[in-house]
Queue: 2 jobs
Job 1
Amino acid sequence: MAADPAVRVIDLRKAFGTTLVLDGISLEVRPGEAVALLGANGAGKTTLLKILATLWRPTRGTATVAGFDCARQPERVRERVGLVAHGTLVYDDLTALENLRFWSVLSGATVGTSDLRDALAAVELEPFADERVRSLSAGMKRRLSLARVVLARPEVMLLDEPSAGLDPQGKKWLEEYLQVFKARGGAILMATHSFGRGLNVADRIVILAGGRIVLERPRTTLTPDELARLYALHTEDGP
Amino acid sequence: MRFARRAWIVVWKDLTIEGRSKETLNALLFFSLLLLFLFQFALGPDRERLASVLPGLLWLGFILSGLLGLGRTFVGERENDCWDGLRLAPGDKSAIYLGKLAGNLLLMLLVETTLLALFAVFFNVDIGPAAPGLALVVGLGTIGLAAIGTLFAAMTAQVRARELLFPVLLLPVQVPVLLGTVKATEAVLLGEPLGAVAHWLRLLAAADVVYVAIGVLTFDFILDG
Amino acid sequence: MTRALGWLATLGLIGGLVMGFGVAPREVTQGNVQRIMYLHVPTAWVAYLAFGIVFFASIGYLWTRSDAADRLARASAEAGVIFTGVTITAGSIWGKPTWGTWWTWDARLTSAAIMFVMYLGYLLLRGIIEEPEQAARYSAVLGIVAALDVPLVHFSVYWWRTLHQPPTVMKPGPVNMPPAILAALLVNVVAFTLLYTYFVVKRVNTLRREHEVLA
């Protein structure tokens, strides 16, 4: 399966009723590569990530992760994908440690308490391991949800606005983690509409507007000013 | 083995959260007490009359508190998108169903036992000699109610007007369970041997098997598609 | 094709009327009122047939995810609810002169009424969910639950109305029915089955066209 790209999307369409949210997207992400998806709200970034994460089915076209079809072999895809989305997937009345234990056991993983504590230590939450999540700050909850994803050892990371709601500690940690993840051969697809430091990890930039890819370039060929100009150009006349 | 561990972690998670928040249990116990007052007010103080309708009242109480309790099965999963997390966790989704069902059974049996004790005290019924038979009937009936209730709670969790839709869908389907349990409870309270209502017990057992099987086989389609 | 089916159903119904009012004799004990049977029994049969088809179409949908199976389930459920409504009404009208009351908790009438409410809930669920794929999936599960529940409802209601457990639930039908009455009944059963088929085919076509316009 070495020939398979980590993520392959071919002519993907998604309609809700009569509205076309994705209108023929084709995209590939290779192992060890990071792609940033830029675009205004409603451009289709979240929809694309949700289809790849097997939460939604495409109306037409195919999406595969490591060669497995997202619509037809969702279980295979789920074993390989880590999704960081808007929801933190934490239960407020469980402690940080209990939250991690629940999700890892439910996913069928056999991890000991020391692994769970290590994961918490990685996101600097170890001192709060036995505190109920309700008492943690929003930024800490986001870090906890990152620990959950990391613990599952995904091959592909799908991130939807990962820096939203994350505290400075969390942002720094995430950037470092993603660099290491990439270096180890992991593939990253990251949606964002801010182009701050978070973009440093990206190898390629893809701009979506109105459910189509309007620009695709290696990041190093774009200066920040140029990127800002192109972004404004393509998103202004978007829907 | 892995399946059992996954089902158990769902039970453990729900019971831990319930143990800490006590949201559902406290409200249900209080609701049971209110029901008791309502029945008393609606039927007057005539003990004779109450005794004759007791099995019906008892199951009406179980079903009403069951509707409230079961309807909340997946409410906690809507916070922080945990529902998506359940879908994305790799593995057989029926483990989640069985875990949720077990948690619901425990909760309902707790509420039902309390309600039964309250009935015994307030309506002056001696349930002591009937206890083993009663336990069997209540157990069989509760499994059927909870099996479909858990499935329908998942079905209505993501839907508009769910508070209304849930009882509207559940009640007609539960007619066999309601009839069977009321008739069997009546006989048991009158001191008849269980053999006299064997056909009802068989019906309840058959309903339990059918309902749990449907739940296990179709839950994946509800949660995930 | 659909039109031919429509004419065939019309022809059948006319034949049924002729048989029911013209050929079949006036029943001895009940009089002309008994002729309601030619409406009551066939519609009851069609109702069960319709919900049986909902059951198989629902399984078919979950298996294949074909929109056609879902449309068949939906159309059949709608027709089934209508025919159940007719059968309950006819039964109730029949009950007034025979039993002296519009409604008795007769086992068969009660079962039909519960079935009516159950599938009304099915249609309610379909109507409330906006996303078509989700509506199809959820109602397929409900279609399976309801169909498997119908026999349980039947048994429980039957036992509830009789004090002791009867030897068999499937009572043998009136064997010594005069041949003319039996023939009239059969013609009507065929006619109403054709009518049901026509309804479903027509409705499935409409639903398919609706889907094509939207897509």
Note: Chain B has ten helices and no strands.
Job 2
Amino acid sequence: MTTRLLPWLFVLVMAVGPLWLGDQYILYVLTSTGIFIIGAMSLNLLLGYTGQLSLGHIAFFGIGAYTSALLSLGFDLDLGGAEPFVLGPQPVWVAFLGGILVAALFGFLIGKLAFRVRGAYFVIVTISFAQVMRMVALNWVDLTEGPMALNNIPPLSVWLPWDGVIPLYRKEYNYLLVLAVAVVCFLVIQRLVQSRVGRALVALRENESLARSVGIDVTRYLVVATVIAAGMAGAAGGLYTHYIRIVDPDVFMFIYTVTMVIMVVTGGKGTLAGPIVGGLAFGVLPEVLREVARPEVQWIIYGVAMIVVVFFLPQGIVPAVKNWFAGRRKRVAATALGLRKETSA
Amino acid sequence: MSLALDTTDAPILEVREVAVHFSGLIAIASMSFAVPEGEIVSLIGPNGAGKTTAFNVITGFLKPTGGKVLFRGTDLTRLSSNRIAGLGVVRTFQRTSIFAGCTVFDNVLTGMHRQGRAETWGVLLRLASVRAETERMREAVAEILAFVGLSHRADELAGNLAYGEQRLLGIAIALAADPKLLLLDEPAAGLNPSETEAFMGVVQRIRDRGVTILLVEHDMRMVMTISDRVVVLNHGRIIAEGPPEVIRANPDVIQAYLGQGVKHAKG
């Protein structure tokens, strides 16, 4: 019972706590960390559950960001015909959903590809994919404005009973929106991994030949996982673009994929809470360090903290904590049993 | 029991002139044999005779250079391994093959995959049919674990099991896939005599459930005790085929497979 309520208690604290503190800077840090945690959760579905290392995960994030931005701003596309294709500005939520769909479509293509090339080759292909996307965003100036970036992206809007439809300029609303999307993504992943579909994904990670020998269509389920993961990363990208309200090709930088991998691996890959714990720790840490240390020292501490976690808790923080509790419960039970024996003797 | 079966029935599996060449190396020259429904058929032969290669061809893990594999009339050589398993042709592996990071219970539950219908949307919407299916599958898993005698280990991580238990779990996973034809690749390898004895009992009880079994095994006592029919493979060719007592007396088999040791043994 308590284990069922614990996650909701966490959500409640996360929803009320920062608003109660009312510090705009804390809200900003938690919002951008939350966006990356959504990305990390989606990466965990691939890396943690299917065991496929995609080092181009930020590509889905960036595709979601750019698609959502372009759809909400409107764009014209010269495809070499007599008339350029012109699309006016779309409602922000339509743009947001469009970003998810386009990212999921690319997820489908990458998922299909993952079964042609595996292991190290897949890693290289995914890195290249993200790099190509960056080059496209940089050079297709007619569409993306290249390094000048897309500006003045409208914020997402929401209907409130007391205000009607309002654009989400305020940090509080953006923060709650990110939290809500994160909860939805968590529930989707939770239901998925605890089902027949999730067991097929884990089977692929644990032993692919055995999975095929009992009739699991591994290709199909890997594609399902990539599509869902890419769609979620696209949603995170959409949140990002409408929150920051500017997007440039740097959104595709490799370092962001690395950040998400760090969040997943330190928290515990293949666990539901892992990306959240790792994400909070390594998303908030740089901001905390910024207050107390010089820039070069910040990154040294960051690096050392990461190595310490990986070295001492190779499974990640969440499995380590779980094991510790399981061990303690056993010890408590053993002591209780010993006492009973003593008293009965 | 096997004598009661009508041998004029079409066999459940028919291997027809299957050949496997690895860029010039001939693993199987031309292999033909049939497995009658409801029997235990053993495929034996010295190391490198092509037994595991034959298994890989039948279960779609390897495409043959030529020939056909007919399961109830369907040619398996064109199908992917998971489709073949979907038809009810399920194998185990020579090396212990389990989902080591999952619990014993989840291992078998994963093996039940093709008996479930739940897909992404049903799972996300938590449809009643999906919940009922999960409930049904969990009961079936408990039944299979009891059948192989692993019920008391259900919550243990599969990787923590003893070697013999892991072999049993491999069988349990295969059984969960509801096989019509079960291919066992050296299931008794590395087991001690009493474990082998218990294993033979399990294999026979699987056959008694109506599952046809094709067995590759080096333990001759096991092969001769439980087989209804034995197929002998040497250098990629079939050199003998028949009931165990006939095979035991076949001079070619003694020469090619058992070698000189038998002469010494017979004194």
Note: Chain A has one domain: 2-314.
